[in-house]
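To illustrate the input format used throughout this study, we show a single complete record. The first block contains the structure-token representation of the backbone; no residue identities are included at this stage. The design step must infer an amino acid for every position from geometry alone.
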């Protein structure tokens, strides 16, 4: 009998994707730092070039492993998946806002005693170049954050890395590790980790990568567009929170964290009963379910 071909996700070299993603993020950050203060519109080409480079690396690594993209993406959005998508987006926004305001502060505080300059520079400051000052800037930001980023990040973290690590270490570990890496790539960690887990479960349950892509895009749209429109009509000034102010925020941070956890628990209870969640985390991976018959 002919030898059975190896599974593409056994051949996929996740370390190459990880190294490429890390190198891309570092290169973009270095380029933005070298550019210095400036409008966000001036920074758009750098971020776009970084995303394009990562896409090319993803395509090359996936092709080498023999990944079939139709099986990664699965069917398009269906009517059955829309209610779950509609419930996930507003809840995720509320939970993220609570966890960003609460959990992130409680993480930054102990970190500030070890690396105070890092916390003040990267996590607490709002550079002037990142404030929307023109409709053109807002349009470019929407293209990058609502169109490009959701597709690239969901393909990388859920479509490839999560399934690769799920085959190697089990589905739950694949979800947690890929979500942690997804969060590490952003300045804010707690909310993005929760988002990563939610997007993973949506993908595992529906077997449609377009569902987390749509949820990701809607999240970014809701988070960016209203604030951008407000900034256009009420030009803000760049502000930075000091470590002293951070310590003063501890009581409200604890309250916001508790509210975020309560909202998350309510959402899980209503939409992810134990049997549905267990089925998503123990069933076959989307790539295998979407195999041609």
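Output of the design step:
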């Amino acid at each position: 009998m002919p030898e059975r071909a190896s599974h593409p996700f056994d051949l996929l070299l996740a370390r190459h994707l990880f190294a490429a993603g890390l190198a891309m993020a570092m290169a973009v950050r270095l380029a933005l730092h070298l550019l210095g203060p400036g409008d966000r519109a001036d920074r758009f080409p750098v971020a776009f070039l970084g995303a394009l480079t990562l896409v090319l690396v993803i395509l090359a690594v996936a092709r080498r492993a023999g990944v079939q993209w139709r099986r990664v993406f699965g069917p398009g959005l269906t009517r059955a998946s829309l209610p779950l998508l509609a419930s996930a987006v507003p809840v995720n926004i509320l939970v993220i806002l609570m966890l960003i305001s609460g959990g992130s502060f409680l993480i930054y505080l102990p970190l500030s005693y070890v690396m105070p300059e890092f916390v003040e520079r990267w996590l607490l400051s709002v550079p002037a170049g990142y404030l929307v000052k023109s409709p053109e800037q807002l349009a470019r930001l929407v293209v990058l954050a609502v169109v490009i980023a959701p597709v690239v990040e969901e393909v990388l973290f859920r479509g490839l890395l999560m399934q690769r690590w799920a085959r190697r270490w089990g589905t739950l570990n694949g979800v947690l590790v890929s979500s942690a890496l997804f969060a590490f790539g952003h300045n804010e960690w707690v909310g993005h980790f929760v988002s990563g887990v939610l997007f993973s479960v949506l993908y595992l349950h529906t077997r449609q990568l377009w569902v987390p892509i749509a949820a990701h895009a809607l999240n970014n749209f809701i988070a960016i567009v209203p604030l951008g429109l407000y900034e256009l009509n009420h030009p803000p000034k760049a502000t930075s929170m000091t470590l002293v102010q951070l310590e003063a925020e501890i009581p409200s941070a604890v309250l916001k964290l508790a509210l975020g956890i309560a909202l998350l628990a309510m959402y899980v209870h209503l939409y992810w009963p134990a049997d549905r969640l267990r089925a998503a985390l123990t069933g076959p991976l989307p790539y295998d379910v979407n195999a041609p018959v």
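Structural context for interpreting the output: The mean pLDDT is 81. The chain has 15 helices and no strands.
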